[in-house]
Amino acid sequence: MGARRGHDVLERLRSRPAQVWHRGVRVQDVTTEPGLANGVRSLAGLYDYQWQHADLMLETDPRTDLKVARSFSIPASQAEFERVGAALLCSSEYSMGMMGREPSYLNRAMSAYAGAAEFFGSRERAYGDNVARYHAYLRSNDLSLTHTLLNPRPNRLAGPARQADPLVAAHVHEERDDGLVIRGARMLATLPLSDELMVFPARLPDGPEESARYAFAFAIPTATPGLKFICRDSVDYGFSGFDHPLGSRFEEMDAVVIFEDVFVPWERVFCYRDVNICNAMAVRTGALAQMAYQVVCKNIVKTEFLLGLASMMVDGSGLESFQHIHEKIAEVWVNLTTLKAFKRASEADARANEYGVVTPSWDPLDAARNLYPRLYPRMVEIIQQIGASGLVAMPTQADLEGPLGEEIRHYYQAARLDATERIPLYRLAWDAAVSAFGSRQVLYERFFFGDPVQMASAVFKDKDRSASVEKVRRLLDDSHQAGR
Predict the structure, then answer these.
(1) Residues flagged as binding site
(2) CB under 8 Å to 27, separation ≥6 — which residues?
(3) Residue extent(s) of CATH 2.40.110.10 domains in the chain
(4) Hey, how many other C-beta atoms are within 10 angstroms of the C-beta on 324?
(5) Residue ranges of E strands in 336-381
(6) In this structure, what are the phi and psi dihedrals at residue 216, rounded to the nearest 5 degrees?
(7) Please, where in the chain does CATH 1.20.140.10 lie?
(8) Which fold has domain 286-469?
(9) Calpha distance 375→251 (Å, rounded)
(10) H-only helix segments in 104-177
(11) What does DSSP assign to residue 443?
(12) Binding site per annotation, positions for FAD
């Protein structure tokens, strides 16, 4: 069918209901369930939005002549890659970057995997063919994906095979002629209200033999029998868009995934029992770089939103004479410009990988993903500091429209804003920086790519610093010679 519209998304979720649990109850219809329905409608709205910006977000599939999402592109040239970047920026603007796991994130991963299909091999199970066919299926039907890549680890120092209960983590319970049977749990699926679940390989630090039954990658419909999604409590409390302008629209939800003897046919399996392929999959195929590139695009939009929000608060309250305000706004501007520079550098040095797929340069993206977990909480703090007590003193829409409305309009003015302008602005700032939705965003950005300490450790171990060391050594040698 090609690129979908919003009503297609809603109809598919209704007709193929996944087993979603929320607040202790199995959800019968995610399109109407309180706490979930608004986020589902926003997801559907994103599919309408792509048609409203079809020149950027859609392209024609030459094999079918259908319009398809550009985020599924496998770029073979620099121009094709840059068009993907424009589409990713446009898509992120729909939610101002607040939908961190919008479908384009995993679309980039699956496109990288398909472009590097030969990496997965063509042995008895034809895993590479499976990846290529699955990508074509996703693209031609414009399906949304959630994913999971972490094993539960009660003991953080051990892999799944060496836990006190080695059956907690998702593992192959049975291997059959027609596929695999999976049992156990996985963490953490964001946007579980999707069409399909992609199970990425989890990090496997134990030996290859004991890790074999945990070594797999596959994709299945979210409505597969035996598959459960246990959701956290929603941060959409059912209030209006006036009171919760972000939480009432962009709650994408997070869930733990339970596999109760879930059957996975071989044609949906992308790797199995090969620990080396599992551990190298994201890097060798370029999937990690493609996902990180999408994230930088998202973070540019998100930072620009915070810069605009902070600037409106400063202007509305007449705070532009204070130097500490100048410093704060400058800090957010520097962050935005830095992210844009990372994106541009990754594009300028993009190259075709060993499989012919144009892939963004990794180092600028790696720097960005290590930096943003520190930038975002600080920018939220700046919003809190500018708004101060005004963020927790804002009345609701019901108050403004109620019997005290006239008094509220009189007493809630700002220097350059009347109350009807100030209240919505500050409620938006509150939802971005103070509310449960805003707090979840901070936590989410802190750990988007994993533990920041482990990421920094990887930089320490993997990045070549020898050229810098050699320059210092030469200076020391020169200084020593000059002192003789």
Answers:
(1) 147-149, 190
(2) 17, 20, 21, 33, 36
(3) 6-283
(4) 10
(5) 351-352, 358-359
(6) -165, 160
(7) 286-469
(8) Butyryl-CoA Dehydrogenase, subunit A; domain 3 (1.20.140)
(9) 22
(10) 104-115, 127-141
(11) H
(12) 147-149, 190
CA within 13 Å, CB half, 16: 17
Written as one letter, the residue type at 477 is: D
Q: Which position has the token pair 């994106």?
A: 343
Please state which of the four CATH numbers 2.40.110.10, 3.40.50.720, 1.20.210.10, 3.40.50.2000 is assigned to the domain occupying 6-283: 2.40.110.10
User: pLDDT 10s per residue in the chain (484 long)?
Assistant: 899 999 999 999 999 999 999 999 999 999 999 999 999 999 999 999 999 999 999 999 988 899 999 999 999 999 999 999 999 999 999 999 999 999 999 999 999 999 999 999 866 678 999 999 999 999 999 999 999 989 998 888 888 888 899 999 999 999 999 999 999 999 989 999 999 999 998 877 777 788 889 999 999 999 999 999 999 999 999 999 999 999 999 999 999 999 999 999 999 999 999 888 888 999 999 999 999 999 999 999 999 999 999 999 999 999 999 999 999 999 999 999 999 999 999 999 999 999 999 999 999 999 999 999 999 999 999 999 999 999 999 999 999 999 999 999 999 999 999 999 999 999 999 999 999 999 999 999 999 888 899 899 999 999 999 999 999 999 999 988 887 7
One-character DSSP codes across 397-413: HHHHHSTTHHHHHHHS-
Distance (Å) of CA 302 to CA 161, 192, 326: 39, 22, 20
